[in-house]
Specification:
36% of the residues lie in helices and 36% in strands. With 109 residues, the chain is α+β, with helices and mostly antiparallel strands. Strand 2 and strand 3 form a beta hairpin. It comes from Streptomyces similanensis.
Length: 109
């Protein structure tokens, strides 16, 4: 599994509303067309109304590359900077988790 943790900071409240609309449209397409995208979750940050956190988990790097090549993702990437003052991206390598397939068997009995 391959993942991303992305933190976005919007410019202001109006930009946050527009960004959320862009995110919603993009998310609909991800859910409909990307079987290799295991999780594509977007969160508002409690107490920080201009911040959004994306948690993305892909079956593998090939699924991530397929995601990045989609027209609706390319549109999102081209449009997002209109609404943002900062972006921080961290690449993740899954070690363990619930709700995702992993190698090996359980030792919990």
């Amino acid at each position: 599994m391959f993942g991303l943790l992305v933190r976005f900071t919007c410019k202001d409240a109006d930009a946050a509303t527009a960004f959320d609309e862009l995110v919603a449209r993009t998310g609909e397409c991800v859910r409909a067309h990307e079987p290799g995208t295991v999780v594509y979750a977007v969160h508002r940050v409690d107490g920080r109304p201009l911040e959004r956190v994306f948690y993305e988990l892909y079956r593998d790097e090939a699924a991530f590359e397929e995601h990045e090549a989609k027209d609706y993702v390319r549109f999102f990437l081209a449009e997002r900077d209109r609404y943002l003052s900062a972006t921080q991206v961290e690449r993740l390598d899954l070690v363990s988790g619930k709700g995702v397939s992993s190698e090996g068997s359980s030792s919990c009995g």
